[in-house]
């Protein structure tokens, strides 16, 4: 693919534009669903630990398929991969839009994820090989601006649709757009791929799927089954064992399925760890905040969407700005400032009350989004900059895979913490309330007391989960001090072809 794109002598803006539109609609679909989770819980009668599977199940499929994208990107043309990915996404959208039971909705989401898993690494790889290293920060900033526009309009649009229509309309709204994008891609994408002599390493695919899938499934099941369930610790143990065998096998293969040698490059390794830790802390907010504002505060879906809008717009506006700053000052300063903001605001989220003002929530979320805009793209771009061009597909696949794994683990961990804390607090508060009663309560008084106890217990659970997320973000902040500006390393294989031995 690099040869096809580089022969043009200038960035292939047409290909990038089509890919960005496809990635935008996939990203929009994710942000549309976040506000809808409480409505889906009520309509399909499922608990938070179950509805989280719409997020973690999406990540599960991503975690299984993204490792294969390094192979797919090297094997097939941009056109073939884009059309296949968007077709899978469109089919999943149609299935989810017709769902009247949770398993069907989850199946549709997983089909969407199978398409989305290919789109993002494909676009990232095209961006990396299209722009020189000194212009890459600005290019990634524009890329971020377009993709961050989805969170800007997604929650508000979702809130408006849910207030006026059934939540299934969210998928019906996306379906014709996805089909239109497929048609645009079919007629506009013309790139060809030179025949590449590369075969899919089947055993590696199986080990990768069992490893990442087992790990994600185990952590994602903890919220509903508990950490002491054999399903939870059993699948985690199987996942870890499979991943160890998978990694050892990749290090022995001449053409690995997923090249773990990218971790020989210190800037990439550090960026990867920081991104994983940040994702663990940030993904949780996507589930915890909608539950707080809608279930506890009774804020309408439309107002809940408007609450998130200023922060998303700020991220979109800041993306090209941080891209330019990255080109000038590097990623270290941006990451330290951004992570400091994330730590402070996440801690502030751990002090929510049932009277916290709507304005305070908007300001807090917006400032947190500012911090996010200074961390995610600069850190990952700095890490990828150190890799030789040949390793870009493996670097992007590795980043996307481990970010999905970290996000799913973080979400499952913090939702489980919230659930367990809520249950223990509900028992404690319930016992205290019963002790304070001076006479036999009426059924109405009992119902009112139960409702109040559950609300206070859930608030305590959400606050405690945000407090844990704060400590996770502190780990990323400490690591950010070790970031150094990366320059592209020499390719050991190319050096070996000049007379030395390949690494």
TrEMBL record:
A GO term, aspect molecular function: transmembrane transporter activity
Membrane topology note: Multi-pass membrane protein
Top-level division of the source organism's lineage: Bacteria
Domain annotation Major facilitator superfamily (MFS) profile: ranges: 15-488
SUPFAM superfamilies: MFS general substrate transporter
Keywords: Cell membrane, Membrane, Transmembrane, Transmembrane helix, Transport
Pfam families, alphabetized: MFS_1 (PF07690)
Transmembrane annotation, as ranges: 12-33, 53-74, 81-102, 114-133, 140-162, 168-188, 200-219, 231-248, 268-292, 304-326, 333-350, 362-380, 401-419, 464-483
Keyword Transport attributed: yes
GO CC annotation terms, alphabetical: plasma membrane
Localization per Swiss-Prot or TrEMBL: Cell membrane
Claim: rRNA-binding is one of the keywords in the record: no
Family assignment from sequence similarity: Belongs to the major facilitator superfamily. EmrB family.
Name this polypeptide is given: MFS transporter
Origin species: Neobacillus piezotolerans
